[in-house]
Amino acid sequence: ELKEEFTRILTANNPHAPQNIVRYSFKKRAYKPVSYVDQMAIHFSLNGNMILKDSDEGRRQSIRLNTAAEKAPTETSAETSEEAEIKDEEGAGDTQATGEEEAEESGAGEVTEAEEAEEPPPPGVKEQKLANQFNFIEQATRTLNNPLRDKACQSEPTPCKDFSATANQWKIYDAYVEELQKMERSKEKEKPKAQVAKKEEEKKKGRKLTSLDLQGDDITKISRAAKIMERMVNQNIFDDIAQDFKYFEDASDEYRDQQGTLLPLWKFQYDKTKRLAVTAISWNPKYKDLFAVGYGSYDFMKQGQGMLVLYTMKNPSFPEYVFSSESGIMCLDFHNDRPYLVAVGFYDGNVAIYNLKKTTPQPSYKSSAKSGKHTEPVWQVKWQKDDMDNNLNFFSVSSDGRIVSWTLVKNELVHTDVIKLSAEGTTMQGPEGLQLQTLGCGTSFDFHKKIDYLFLVGTEEGKIYKCSKCYSSQFLDVFEAHHMAVDSVSWNPYHLKVFISCSSDWTVKIWDHTVKTPMFVFDLNSAVGDVAWSPYSSTVFAAVTTDGKAHVFDLSINKYEALCTQLVVAKKKNKITHIQFNPVYPVVIIGDERGHVISLKLSPNLRKMPK
Amino acid sequence: AEVEETLKRIQAHKGVIATMVINAEGIPIRTTLDNSTTVQYAGLLHQLTTKARSTVRDIDPQNDLTFLRIRSKKHEIMIAPDKEYLLIVIQNPCE
C-alpha cells in the first residue's frame, strides 16, 4: 500500500474554487451547471493611492501642494477613505471648526475644496493651525442653553350659568300680554283726569292689598286651588247625586198620568245653624248655582243670633260665605245688577246690606234706631232700581205697619217712609181727643215686574193692599184675601195681572188684580209657609206646608189638584219654611226649621212648558 | 287661616287618602303621607302637570290648565295647579 503512486499535477486551477456551480435558468426552468468557473484566487490586495499626474485629481492636488507649501506642508494621507481626505482639508482650512460645521461640510466636500481653492489670498492673514492625521484633537464647545421655564397665565373664567328653556307658543303669548299690560299702565298714568286718578288709586290700593296678602302666609296662595279641589272631592263623594242632577229623568213619569215627583238631591247644612230655622232663601241672579239662606227663628220666645250663609250646588258640604249677626235674619234679597250685595232684614227691625266681596263677617251698612229702623221684625226686603243719583235703594216691610224705602247715600242708610198701612176703620179715640190710627202689620210684599211703582202688600190681618209708590197715604186697592196672616204674595212672572198669595189659613189663592175675588183657591190641609211661581212656566207653582209636604201645581194640566204632593222632611219634628225655584236648573230648594236646606229635582211632568 | 280649614275639611272627607301641597319646583311643602312616597308623588306629578299645561297652552295660548284628574283602578288622583303651587289629593271614590 505504501508503494501506491500518487500523481501530482500542477494545474492552473484554483483548488478552492467550486467545481459545481449551478445556476437557475428561467428559460429551462431548471438548475443548469455553469460550465466555466472563475479560477482566479486573490492572495493579496492593496489599495494604492497613487494618482495619475495629468488627471483632474492630480492637477488639483499639485496646485494645492503648491499653495499649501506657503501655509504649511500638507501630508498625503495614508488612509484609504475619502472621508479622511475631506477631514484633512477641513482641518487645514479652519482653525475653529465646530462639530456642526464639520458635519455640514462633510456632505459638501467637493464644494469646500473649490472654495478653499479660491480662498488662498484672504486666509493668508490667518495663521493656520497645524493639524495632523495621527495626532488630532477635536474640541467641541457648546453654548449654554438657558433652562427653560414655563410661565402661564390664566384669567378667571367668566361666571357661566346654564340656562335652558323651551320656547312654547304660550310663553311668547304671555310675554306679549305682559308688554300690553305695561303699555296700558303707562298710558293710564299719563291721563290727568281726576276720575281716572281715583280709579287708579283704587287699583293701586287693590294691588297693594293683594301683594300684602300674598306676602303674609304661604298657604293662602293656594286658596283658589284648595277651593276647586274641595269641590272636586265633593263631586266625587256625591257623584251619584251629581249624575242624577244632571242626567236623571224620571222615566216613570210617563206612566204616572200627569203626576210628578221630586227627586231629593243634596242636603245643605252647617254646624252653626243647627238650632236656627231657615227664614229666607234666595238664588243669586248672576251665579245660578249660588244661593243665600237666612237663618233666624220664628219663635217669639226663642230669639237668638242669626246667620247669613251662602251655599253653592258645587260644594254641598260646606258653605261658601258665612256671615253672622246678633239678631235673627227674617228676609234677604240679592241685588239684580250687583249680585254681590245682599239686603237683609232682621227680627229686631234693622236692615243691613252685606257685601260679599268683603271678607269681614259684619254687614257693610246697617241701620240703627237713630236712622229709623222698624220697631217690629222686618218681614221682607226688596231691591229697587238705582235712583236718579245712582244710589242703591231697597224697600222693607215690617209688622209696625210701615213700608220704608232705604237709600244708600254716601255710605249711610237713609230711610224714607213710603207708606203707612193704616187699617181701615180702626181709628180710635185716644186720651185728650187725639185720633190714633192703628197700623196694620205688613208681612210680605212684591213688586210688579213691569210696572215699577205698583206693588202688593200682604198683612197679618189677611188683607192684601195694592199700592203705588207715588201715593203715600192711600191704597189703590184692597183685597180681602185670607182669614189669617198672608205669608207670601207674588206676581206671576208671565201673566202681568195675576198674583198668588198664601196664608196660614191653609189656603193658596190666585188672583187677578182687577178682580176682587180670587180666581183659584187651593186648600192644602195645613198652614202654607211659602209659595213660589216657577220661572219656566206661567202655570206652574209650588207651595210648602208646615206638615212637611211640598205641593207642585200646574194649572194648565190640573186646576184643582196638585201634580205632586211629596213629603220632604220628617213630619213630626220639622216644618218647612220656604221654597224657591232655581231660575235655570229644574231644581227647587226647600228650607226647614232645623236649619237644613234640601234641594230637589223636578221630574219631567212638573216641568212642562206651556204651548 | 281659612285655607287651612279648607284643607282640613278636604282631608276629613270620606274616601280621601292623602293631601299634598307642592311648590313650583316640585318640592313638597305640606303632606299627610310619609316622606318617601310624598317625594315620589311630587316629582312625578309635577312633571306631568307641566306637560299637561304645556299641551293645553300650546294648542291655545289663551287657555290654561285648571284641573287634572287621573283615575286609576285603585283610586283617583286630583291635581289643582295654581300659579306657584300644586295641590294634590288622592281619593278613593266610593263605588
Quick summary:
The complex is a heterodimer of chains A (611) and B (95). Chain A is an alpha+beta fold and 611 residues long. Helices cover 19% and strands 30% of the residues of chain A.
Biggest sheet overview of chain B: 5 strands, antiparallel
Element order of chain B: H for helix, E for strand: HEEHEEE
Greatest interface: A-B, 29 and 37 residues
CATH homologous superfamily identity of the domain at 252-606 in chain A: YVTN repeat-like/Quinoprotein amine dehydrogenase
What's the CATH first level of chain B? Alpha Beta
* CATH topology term of the domain at 252-606 in chain A: Methylamine Dehydrogenase, Chain H
* Tally of individual helices of chain A: 8
Biggest sheet: strand arrangement of chain A: 3-32-31-30
Helix content of chain A: 10-25%
Residue stretches of chain B low in confidence (pLDDT < 50, at least 5 long) are none
Number-wise, the strands of chain A total 32
Strand portion of chain A: 25-35%
- The total domain count of chain B is 1
Output the structural class of chain B.
Answer: alpha+beta
For the record, give the distance between the C-alpha atoms at the N and C termini of chain A, rounded to a whole number: 168 Å
Strand content of chain B: 25-35%
User: What is the count of helical runs of chain B?
Assistant: 2
Inertia-based shape of chain B: globular
Main location (chain B): cytoplasm
InterPro entries (chain B): DYNLRB1/2, Roadblock/LAMTOR2_dom
Subcellular location (chain B): Cytoplasm, Cytoskeleton
Organism (chain B): Jacana jacana (Wattled jacana)
